[in-house]
Amino acid sequence: MPVRIATFNLESLGDSREPTVALGRRLDRLRTHLLRLDADVLCLQEVNARKAPRRHRVLAALDRLLDGTPYAGCARVEMTRMDTGAPADRHNLVIVSRLPIAESRQIWNDIVPPLSYRPVTGADDATPIINRFDRPFLYAALSLSDGRRLHIVNVHLRAPIAAPIAGQKQSALVWRSVGAWAEGFFLAALRRSAQALEVRLFVERLFDQEPDALIAVCGDFNADAPEVPVRLIQAPVEDTGNPALAGRELCAIERRIPDQQRYSVLHAGAHKMLDHILVSKALMGALCGAQVDNQGLADEVFDAAPQRSISESFHAAVAADFALTR
């Protein structure tokens, strides 16, 4: 049987503002998706954590979601905060694997340092903004029965929403000027691209150690195929201009999906492919199928509701099958 790799943004699973009954309905719907996916490797984004009595935060909603499914006994790699060693309150990353995990870690400004930027729309003596990444990315090396390793990178890049600038907003959603908003939007784009750069440089290290590495970079890129973050991680040979580097290019499995089905998010009626699985050429050679589970997908603008009671997630799961030996 092939090895199936999937990525799925669970859309703030376990939001503390969501009533227990509404959460139960969401879990039932999400569980149906996960069972249909039947993935051997599952990269999840936006898993929230709730604080347990006398304990650090735990991924209680995810535990409920996986309980009683084939995923319940799988190995897991979870994102943790650097200060507590426990999950963050919002938007954690998780890798669930039926394959043995030989190695795992998270990378968070470890390769690309935080960027310092002094705003120009604030006061003349504005304090520089230290642009730390919103979250790390997760890495896991999985053991295949033939002795090779399958390298999994789970990412959730920053959304294209303007970053805050001190004193430049009237309220949470209202800016004082177009210039301030524009600078905040620039900062968000800068941070997202820097996150993508850190992913790419990590992939380069994998290739340095193993030129024919089996690599899959999965997750919510918050960017469509032609946009900078995706292109930066892919590193197309036509951009580097060096045929000797062609083996380091990552390939988008979505290219095997028909155009009319190639979208993971509906935004105001527009089809967008924001969730990707990018793979090394060695892994692409083993690809035997790809799909986006977008049937019945709700529109994140037109169908949005405070409790998300009408939609289990505004993202579709993306999956790919590879002819590998488990």
CATH superfamily, please?
Endonuclease/exonuclease/phosphatase
Query: Radius of gyration from the CA trace?
Result: 20 Å
How is the largest sheet built, in terms of strand order? 5-6-2-1-20-19
- How many helix segments? 6
Structural class call reads alpha+beta
How many angstroms does the end-to-end distance come to? 8 Å
Number of domains: 1
Topology summary:
Elements: E1 3-13, H1 20-37, E2 41-47, E3 50-51, E4 57-58, H2 60-66, E5 75-78, E6 92-97, E7 101-107, E8 115-117, E9 129-131, E10 137-143, E11 149-156, E12 169-171, E13 174-175, H3 178-209, E14 214-220, H4 228-234, H5 237-240, E15 250-252, E16 265-267, E17 270-272, E18 275-280, H6 281-284, E19 287-293, E20 317-322
Parallel strand pairs: 1-2, 11-14
Antiparallel strand pairs: 1-20, 2-6, 3-4, 5-6, 7-10, 8-9, 10-11, 12-13, 14-18, 15-18, 16-17, 19-20
Helix pairs in contact: 1-2, 3-4
Describe the structure in brief.
By secondary structure, the protein is α+β, with helices and mostly antiparallel strands.
Account of the 3D structure:
The chain has six helices and 20 strands. By secondary structure, it is an alpha+beta fold. It has one domain (about 5-320): Endonuclease/exonuclease/phosphatase (Deoxyribonuclease I, Chain A). The mean pLDDT is about 90.
